[in-house]
Amino acid sequence: MNILLLGASGQVGYELQRSLQGLGDIAAPTREQLDLTDLDRLADGVRALKPALIVNAAAYTAVEQAESEPGLAFRINAEAPAVLAREARALGAAMVHYSTDYVFDGGKNAPYTEDDLAAPLNVYGRSKLAGENAVTESGISHLILRTSWVYGMRGNNFLLAMLKRAREQGELRVVADQFGAPTWCRTVAEISAHLLADANVAGNEWWRCHSGIYHLACAGQTSWHGFAEAIMAAAHIDCRVVPIATSEYPSRAQRPPNSVLDCRKLANISGELPNWQDALQLCMS
Ligand SMILES: NC(=O)C1=CN([C@@H]2O[C@H](COP(=O)(O)OP(=O)(O)OC[C@H]3O[C@@H](n4cnc5c(N)ncnc54)[C@H](OP(=O)(O)O)[C@@H]3O)[C@@H](O)[C@H]2O)C=CC1
Ligand SMILES: Cc1cn([C@H]2C[C@H](O)[C@@H](COP(=O)(O)OP(=O)(O)O[C@H]3O[C@@H](C)C(=O)[C@@H](O)[C@H]3O)O2)c(=O)[nH]c1=O
Predict the structure, then answer these.
(1) Phi-psi bin for 24: left (phi > 0), alpha (psi -120 to 50), beta?
(2) Where does the RmlD-like substrate binding domain start and stop, copy by copy (predicted)?
(3) How far does residue 236's CA lie from ligand 1's centre (Å)?
């Protein structure tokens, strides 16, 4: 099977390169080879590669910057996935597409299920929701995997930002009133690969039964403050982590106060997800 993997230099994409080995021949073009902002060349690139599966881990993920670059965020997060889905449809290919907990407004007092209404608060979230809708509406065999608070030991993420700030500043001030589930990028990749291995064995029947949106995040929940404290503990860094309110941390983008994802739909087909503290320990060891 020919697999087209987009975003292979990103957190999730990097892990996917390894996790998807064995499922088929992976083409993983760089941004220079296939830029998602050039929609015509993107379509041509897909037609040339003729993948049976497109895995789209590429995205515009700069939440703050998206507020001043909505056109670019929508191009990469919504229009490019629409082109990928259109080309997948023409080829009879399936598609895996990643999305975010930031599609929710955070007003719910419980974890969000796939059936809850998405009502994003910021440009990034709106662009990701538009991308989801494009994939869903294309009618192709697809998995939309919504994850949250992704981290790893490379790339841009909260964990590395906290380690850097702790070393430079010796004290952290972190919001304690936004709740979610930190999720290791390797967890996302491994579960994706597990699902795709099942799909490979069962074929079209699997996709007929399982196409749709799934929440894929580590189990449990915490605040960004709780996450920062756990990072310091795991790294054995003695650094004061001061809890602050969202209003004390100036931001252009509004973020959901609660974006914990209920992952039971996914757990039913892939097994229980690891606890976020255990995944963090593994990542940092
Ligand atoms: N990070 C997070 O906390 C979360 C992420 N997600 C979602 O998970 C998915 C993976 O995220 P993550 O791995 O963190 O993303 P990263 O920001 O780590 O990586 C993004 C990837 O997209 C590529 N990319 C960006 N713009 C373009 C472009 N114009 N053309 C081609 N490639 C491009 C980047 O390439 P390059 O290296 O060249 O920039 C990089 O490979 C995304 O869909 C994201 O929305 C969901 C929830 C949380
Ligand atoms: C760096 C820093 C952030 N914060 C706050 C700001 C914000 O409310 C929260 C998280 O900050 P960040 O900017 O690192 O994270 P943010 O970019 O909002 O992270 C999001 O990225 C996108 C891609 C997603 O899809 C989401 O799931 C989520 O992971 O922590 C502090 O309170 N203190 C700090 O020192």
Answers:
(1) left
(2) 1-284
(3) 29
- pLDDT digits over 63-81, tens only? 999 999 999 999 999 999 9
Q: Please check whether residue 68 lies inside any domain of the structure.
A: yes
In short, whether 7's Cβ falls inside 6 Å of ligand 1 is yes
* CATH code for the domain of 215: 3.40.50.720
**Proximal ligand: closest to the CA of 160:** 2
Q: Which residues contact residue 233 at a Cβ distance below 8 angstroms, ignoring those fewer than 6 apart?
A: none
* CA nearest to 84, candidates 72, 102, 96: 96
Rounded CA Rg of the chain? 18
Q: Which amino acid is at 254?
A: Q
Task: Check whether 178 has a pLDDT greater than 90.
Answer: yes
Q: Distance between CA 234 and CA 113 in Å, rounded? A: 30
Give pTM, 2 decimals: 0.98
Task: State the complex-level ipTM.
Answer: 0.99
- The DSSP secondary structure of 55-67, one letter per residue, reads EE------HHHHT
